Class I SAM-dependent methyltransferase
Amino acid sequence: MEIATLSPSGSALDNHRQAEFENRFVHALNESGMLQLVSLGHRAGLFDQLANGVAVTSSELARLSQLNERYIREWLGGLTVSGIVEHDADSMTYRLPPEHAALLTNGRDANLAVFAQYIPLLGQVEDDVLESFQHGKGVPYEKFHRFHEVMAEDSGQTVLPALFDSILPLAPEIPERLEAGIHVLDLGCGRGLALMEMAERFPNSHFKGYDLSQDAITWACEQAERRSLNNVSFEVRDLSDFNSTAETQAFDFVTTFDAIHDQAKPLNLLQGICRTLKRNGVYLAQDIHSSSHHHHDREHPLGPLLYTISIMHCMSVSLAQGGEGLGTMWGREVARDYFTRAGFSRIDVHQLPHDIQNDYWVLRP
């Protein structure tokens, strides 16, 4: 491409810097196309069909997956030029290398294909978000199709595998108290996967989950019934007035998983948590690891993605409820201020080796 020597304002350009940015941008366009292909392949179950490392033709993969061969062939072409699958031009076969399969298929420690879904998912509301730039009111939850489904997959990789061995022991007394039998509340519970895992592991304890989404709560109730979990229940509930509606000293242990920053009234929710905890209660909050200052997030390994998710979802759904719009990247400094104002006197924050995205806060009244 032709490299300009003057900026639109007429000032001299650093041609090397411009060329570097141009190359970076073209690379990003290709990588975003790859993410769309990965999302499609994950949802269609195609990576799992390729997980055994056996080379197949597009026709064979179409037969195995019971999907259309023409679409399969084009998808495989995109993954070939993306360097995700290996292609043998003589035999017209395609193979997913085991190193790639380990990161793109189910049943492993981490399936990165899950996270690829966020880009096309959030793209569905781009027109609504663009309108919000003008009126500032945000985009309501119901506009986000499949969001709780994808969040449940995300949680299934960051929270559930580490829940019993790493997360709950951050409050050392909690595992033993769960064994003995206590009352537990999860707020913004989504599909309730963490609650159901705890309910199954600790039958002497009683668990309750609240979420604003009727779809998520319906799914959670159906799953709890299917798993015969009689010690867990779920309820649709708006938590914006939780500071006044929370039951006083009703719960021994309260959790939130990636749920505070997108609330309409986050301080009200936190004050309600402090109110509903018993005197010796513990609140465990997982939330995004970041600073409250943009310049400190420049080296964040997921910074651009998390700011995108913030503007396309977390900030926007809060503003749609007439809320504060804290955003995904509200950061440790603001979080600590909110926890303190809510009434928590003992505040500790941790990071876990498996999770570069989140902080884990342990708070006591």
Observations:
- The mean pLDDT is 95.
